[in-house]
């Protein structure tokens, strides 16, 4: 499988998962819950809607706060995570709601914010 | 071709930089000339060499972009600290292309301390490119001119504006319009016009009638007080 980091990964919210099945995406959300096995966690987007993120290997660390996930959308509209990064919030909290509004803007004007 | 140069530093996505076309020494993104740009993304790779640090910066819009930061080897004690992979950074630099491969030469690379700046940046990209494109479009548009073809009477035009349309002022258009629409065989009288056009003095109406008549839009019928339009019904 080609390296997912070498291709465009549209930034999406939970509502867009269905339109991206089988495709690489970038999802930013707040950690709501981590499965005891560490192979699954739930993120909420800026509108509070939940997305399930799956991992091929269990998490090796405790994650919390806002996380940015890169992965592919599965047929079940979950995200198969390839990599993730925790947004730093040591100096300021991240406004996920405003980020969600920004997503609406970039989806409305793909000619000024192209993915690919 | 209209050349709109951006004197400012333009926020861009990596995908926009990769799509930029090079013409001689300049780059254009959809016809908008760019030179100094800012990008924000996550460092995927960092490699330190004696004279420069090579980063690969990823903003999700395309594959990570090469960003080179030259190190001043003469600078005493000024050692550039390498930004570790996994860090979100803001890069300011110049777009370069070598052997068809694009890269950035950075004059500034800074870790983002507040991730809300990233949200602002993506909005600034849309805003900047939209404005630059609008400026480009309006600069090349031919100034609007009033064409005489196809514009008929200005029945709905209120007030006594003097802006000529069709070569006629608003007053003249109003008078002509009334005369045109008059069904009576002997045409419209000046008195009738005065009754209909409350806002116009008799002398204004007479001036309008005189002008329209001399231009051939109307002609007098039974006497100098009655006029019909020369336009066929």
UniProtKB/TrEMBL annotation, chain A:
UniProt xrefs under CDD domains: RPA3
Record's subcellular location: Nucleus
Principal location: nucleus
InterPro entries per record: NA-bd_OB-fold, Rfa2
Keywords, comma-separated and alphabetical: Nucleus
Recorded GO CC terms: DNA replication factor A complex; site of double-strand break
Tagged with keyword DNA repair: no
Pfam families in UniProt: Rep_fac-A_3
Molecular function as annotated in GO: damaged DNA binding; single-stranded DNA binding
Coiled coil, from the record: none
GO biological process: base-excision repair; DNA replication; double-strand break repair via homologous recombination; mismatch repair; nucleotide-excision repair
Membrane-spanning ranges: none
Family membership noted in the UniProt record: Belongs to the replication factor A protein 3 family.
Name of the protein this chain belongs to: RFA3 protein
Gene: Rpa3
UniProtKB/TrEMBL annotation, chain B:
InterPro entries: NA-bd_OB-fold (IPR012340), RFA2-like (IPR040260), Rfa2/RPA32 (IPR014646), RPA_C (IPR014892), WH-like_DNA-bd_sf (IPR036388), WH_DNA-bd_sf (IPR036390)
GO MF annotation terms: single-stranded DNA binding
UniProt entry tagged with the keyword Hydrolase: no
Main localization category: nucleus
GO biological process, one term: DNA replication
GO cellular-component term (any): DNA replication factor A complex
UniProt entry keywords in alphabetical sequence: DNA damage, DNA recombination, DNA repair, DNA replication, DNA-binding, Nucleus, Phosphoprotein
Stored Pfam families: RPA_C
The keyword Nucleus belongs to this UniProt entry's keyword annotation: yes
SUPFAM superfamilies: Nucleic acid-binding proteins, Winged helix' DNA-binding domain
Family: Belongs to the replication factor A protein 2 family.
Name of this chain's protein: Replication factor A protein 2
UniProt organism field: Chionis minor (Black-faced sheathbill)
């Amino acid at each position: 499988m080609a390296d997912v980091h070498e291709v465009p990964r549209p930034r999406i919210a939970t509502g867009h998962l269905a339109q991206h099945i089988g495709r690489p995406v970038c999802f930013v959300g707040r950690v709501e819950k981590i499965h005891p096995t560490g192979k699954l966690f739930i993120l909420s987007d800026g509108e509070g809607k939940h997305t399930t993120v799956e991992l091929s290997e269990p998490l090796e660390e405790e994650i919390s706060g806002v996380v940015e996930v890169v992965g592919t959308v599965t047929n079940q509209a979950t995200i198969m995570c390839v990599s993730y990064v925790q947004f730093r919030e040591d100096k300021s909290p991240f406004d996920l709601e405003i980020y969600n509004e920004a997503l609406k803007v970039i989806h409305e004007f793909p000619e000024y914010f192209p993915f690919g | 071709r209209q050349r709109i140069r951006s004197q400012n530093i333009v926020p861009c996505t990596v995908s926009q930089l990769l799509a930029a076309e090079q013409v001689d020494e300049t780059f254009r993104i959809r016809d908008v000339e760019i030179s100094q740009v800012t990008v924000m993304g996550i460092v995927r790779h960092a490699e330190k060499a004696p004279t420069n640090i090579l980063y690969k910066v990823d903003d999700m819009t395309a594959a990570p972009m090469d960003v080179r930061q030259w190190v001043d080897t003469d600078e005493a004690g000024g050692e550039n600290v390498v930004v570790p992979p996994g860090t979100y950074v803001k890069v300011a630099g110049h777009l370069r292309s070598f052997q068809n491969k694009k890269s950035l030469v950075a004059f500034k690379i800074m870790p983002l301390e507040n991730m809300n700046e990233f949200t602002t940046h993506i909005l600034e990209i849309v805003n900047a490119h939209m404005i630059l494109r609008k400026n480009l479009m309006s600069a090349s548009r031919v100034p609007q001119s009033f064409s005489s073809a196809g514009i008929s009477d200005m029945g709905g035009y209120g007030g006594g504006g003097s802006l000529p349309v069709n070569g006629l002022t608003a007053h003249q258009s109003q008078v002509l319009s009334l005369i045109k629409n008059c069904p009576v065989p002997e045409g419209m009288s000046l008195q009738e016009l005065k009754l209909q056009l409350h806002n116009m003095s008799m002398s204004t109406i007479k001036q309008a009638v005189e002008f329209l008549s001399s231009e051939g839009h109307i002609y007098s019928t039974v006497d100098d007080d009655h006029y019909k339009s020369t336009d066929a019904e």
